[in-house]
Fold:
Amino acid sequence: MADGLGFEVPELRQWLAELALLPQFFQQRVMRGAVATAASVMRREAKALAPRDTGLLQRAIFQMRLTQECTPTLEVWKVDVRSGKVTTRSGKQRPDAYYARWVEYGHFARVSESGGVGGARFSKAERQFLATGAGVVSGAYWVPAKPFMRPAFANTQAAALQAMADYIRENLPLVTGAMRYLQTIGA
Structure:
């Protein structure tokens, strides 16, 4: 559901030069935290934009580091909606948000013989709308999209980049200080 993100930060060349002086372990820690911070910004926005019908869709939005795709110079995180059966710690299965793509992109819903969808009854206004044939295609009608992931990505690019820059700005001095300390004690 999400797209890639490219950016340019003015201080980036200086930070990368400083990171190159650090051991790989510290480089990865700073960059991993920075990208995780950006993913958190996008996840929070997606949760805020998700429809609040039951709250399930909001609870199903997650962020995850894709370790198989990460390299020493590349960090890959995913912000998506969990779909598929989810088992809780107590062993119970809770409903999943399998319908997230339908909400994001819109979908056709079937009209049953009894005049309802999935056992639900239509209101009088809905029955009149369907009786006119508007929006109905061979026993189905179009449910418009209510996008939340794509707008979240589009709305938070600048904020995510700023969060990354702030994270690096705050943590790089700590890491370089820790590195210098470790060098002085001979570790």
